[in-house]
Amino acid sequence: xRLPGWRRIARGVGALLHPRATAREIDEEAQHYLDEAxxxxxxxxxxxxxxxxxxxxxxxxxxxxxxxxxxSGWENGVETLLADLRYAVRSLRGAPGFTxxxxxxxxxxxxxxxxxxxxxxxxxxxxLPYPAAHRIVTIAEMQADGSRNSGTFGMYRELAQRSRSLxxxxxxxxxxxxxxxxxxxxxxxGQRVSAxxxxxxxxxxxxxxxxxxxxDRAGGPSVVIISDELWHRRLGGNPSVIGTEVALDGRPRTxxxxxxxxxxxxxxxxxxxxTPLQYDMSENRAWGHHLRTVGRLRPAITVxxxxxxxxxxxxxxxxxxxxxxxxxxxxLTAIPLGEDLTRGVRPALLAILGGVGLVxxxxxxxxTNLLLARGEQRSGEFALRAALGAGRDRLxxxxxxxxxxxxxxxxxxxxxxATWAVRGLVALAPPELPRHDAIGVDSGAxxxxxxxTTLVGLAFGVLPAVQAARGAPRRALQRGSRRVxxxxxxxxxxxxxxxxxxxxxxxxGSGLLLRSLQRLFAMPIGFEPSELLTMQVQTSGSRFGEDSxxxxxxxxxxxxxxxxxxxxxxxxxxxxxxxxxxDEYGVRLQASRDGHSTFRYAVSAGYLETMRIPVRRGRSLxxxxxxxxxxxxxxxxxxxxxLFRGADPIGKRVEIGPPDPAYTxxxxxxxxxxxxxxxxxxxxxxxxxxxxxxxxxxxxxxxxGSGEVAALAPAVRAxxxxxxxxxxVVRVAMMEDLLDATAADRRFALLLFExxxxxxxxxxxxxxxxxxxGGVVERTREIGVRSALGASRRxxxxxxxxxxxxxAGLGIVIGLAGSAVATHAIASMLFSVSRLxxxxxxxxxxxxxxxxxxxxxxxxxxxxxxxxxxxxxxx
Length: 875
Fold this sequence. Notes:
This protein has 875 residues and is α+β, with helices and mostly antiparallel strands. The two termini are 63 Å apart. The model is unreliable at 475-485 (pLDDT under 50).
C-alpha cells in the first residue's frame, strides 16, 4: 500500500536526520518479514531449515532489501546530492589554482551584471512609486522641428476645463525659497504647483490636508506643504506643526500638510516644500513657456486616445486664445511619465546593460574553457569511474553539481562585490539619473543574482559535463589519439573565437565613446573656463519687493567682492553658461513681429572681460551704460548672422520680450555654449544689469584672481554676507567642474564601457593563452618529432602563433561584423563620431591583435624549449 504524502515526507526527513535508526528499523522489518514467511512455510509442511531457506530466497539478502528500501524514497536523491556536493568540494579544494581563477572570473561577471541590474531596474523596469503609475503622463508641447516647449498656465487652464480624457491635470515650476528663523538661513528646493499636483501623483499628506482649488487663486492664502525630511530636520518632527507658520523669503506661510516619509517626488527629487502657483490670467506670464505639465488619465483611457484629444483641444485653444507670442505650429502630446523621465538616460543604460551582458557571456566562455581543460586532466578518473559501473548520467550529474557549486560560490562573491559596486555607480552616476535614491542591492537584486548564477552554472557546465562523460571508458585508451585531441581543440577553439568577438564589440564601443568624448571637449565654448570661480546669490525677503532694492544689493555685493584680496576681476550675470540656467526671451528687430528665441543675459560691466569672451565688432558693456542712459545691448555672432544676414548690426535696435524699451546694438561678441557641449552655441543677447527693467532675484558671480582661485570662495562669500547676512550663497563651483558635468552621462557610460572592455580584454587574453598553452601540451610529441627532424625555433614559433592568431583573427572578423550592428545601441551617445569610425576600428583591432599575439607568445616560447630526445624516449 502506498503511503500518504505526509507520511513519505516524514519518513524521508527521519531517514536523513537519523540514518542509523532508520537502518535498524529496516533490518527489523526485514527480519520480521523473514520470520513471518518462515512460519508460513512451516505451516505448509516444510522443515524449519527448508522454510528458512525458502523465505530467504523470496526476500533476498538483508543488505539488498535495505538498499532497495532506501533507494525507493525521495531522501535517496537528497543523500546522493549531498554526496555529490561533498565530492565536489573535495575536488575543487584539490585544485586551488583552477578554483581561484574560475571563482574570480564568475565573481566579475555576476557582480558586474547584478550591480548594473540594480541601477537599471528602478530606473527603467520598475513602475513609478505611485498608485496606477501607468496612468500618469507628461503633456508636452511639440514644435514642428521636434523640439519641445515648456508649458503655459493659459493652456493648462483651458485643458483642465475642457479635457474629458484626463482625471486630473497639474502644472509646476521650481521654487527656491530661503527659510529664515532661529537657525541659519537655508535656501530650500521646492515647487510652485497647481492645486491638483498631488492628486495627479495619487498621494496625499500624512498630516494635515492637500491643496484645494481655493488655495490656488490669485491673492489666495499663503500656505505650504512640507516634506517629512524637512519636518524632522528643521521643525523637530513636532506633530502639532499643522497650522504653524514658517518664514519663507521673509513671508510667513502656514503649514497645512506634511508628506509621508516614503513619498518619492520623481519630478523634483530634492524638493522639500510646495506652495500653490496662484497665477492671475491677466498677467503676461500666464502664456509664458516656463511650466511643466502632467496629468492622470481616466481609467480605460489610453495614451493614444489622450493624445488625440489633446491635439484637438490644443488647436481650438490656439485658434481662440493664442496671443501673438505663442508658437503657431504646435502639437500637444501625452507621454507616459516614466518614459519621459528616462528618455535622456535610457540609451546609455540599455547600452551599459548590453555591455555587462557581454562581460557575463565572456566570463561563462572562459570558465567553460577552464572546465574543458580540467576535464581532460581528469579523463583517467572518469574512465576509472565508468569502468567501476558509473553511468553517463551519473557522471554528468556529478560534473553539473560541481559547476553549480562553483557558480553559487562565485555568485555569492559577485553579490558581495555588487553591493560595493553599486555605491560607486551611484557616486559616479550623472545628476540627471532619475530615481537616484531608489538604487541599491535589495531583495529583487539578490533574486536576480541567484537566477543569473543558476543559469550561468548550467550554461557553462553542460558542455564540459557531456564531453567528459561521453566515451569515458575509452578515453584512457585514446589519450594520445590525434582524433580525440583534435575534437577537444575544436571545441575550445570555437569558444575562444566567440570570446574574442565579444571582447572586440566591447572594445569598439569603448573606443567610440572615448573618441566622442575627446571631440566633445575639443569643441570651442567661447570663454576661458580655467581658474574661474562661480557661485550664485539669491535675494529673498519682503524688502526686495522693489526692483531697485535688489539692484542696489547686487551692486554693493559686487563692490565688496572686488575688494577681496587676490580677486583681479569679478562680475555678475543673470545666467551662467553650462550651469543649467536656460533663460530665453523672444528677441526681434524694432517694430518687427518675427521674434527669435534667444538666451538673455543681464550682466554687469566687466563680465565679458572676466569670462574672456571676445568682442568681434563694436564695443563691450561699460559703466556708462547705467540706468538712466540709453538702453544698449550686445548680440553674439551667430545671432548677428541669423538676424542681419551679413549686414552691419551696430546701431540697429532690437526689442527683448515686451516691446518697450528698444535696445541699441553696440557690439557683437563671440558665441558661448550655454546649455551643453553637445548642443553647441545658441543665439544670445546681453544687456546691462542696470538697464534691464525687471529685477533678477538670482545672480551668478564669476571671479578671477591671482594664485589658487578656489581658495577665494570663503572670502567671496564673506564679502557678500557683509552686505546682507541673510542672503544664501549656493552652487559654489569652479567653471571647469561645470564643464565636466555637461558630459556626465557620456563620461559615465565611457567609464563603465572601459571597465567592461578591459575586463573582456584580460579574459580574452587569458582564454587565448589557455587554449594555445593546452595545444602546446597536447602537441608535445609532434613538436618533439619536428625538432628532431630539424625544424628551427622560428618554424616552431610560427606553428604555435599560426594556431592562436588564426583563432584570434577569426574572432576579430566576426567581432567586426557584430560591432557594425551592436554599435547602434550607443549611436545616440556619440558626438561628431560615426559608429563606423574607421580610425577607431583600426586602432582597436590592432590593440586586440597585439594582446592576442602576446598571449600566444609565451606558449610559443615554451614550445621551443621542448626536448626532442626526452619526448621520443617517453613515446
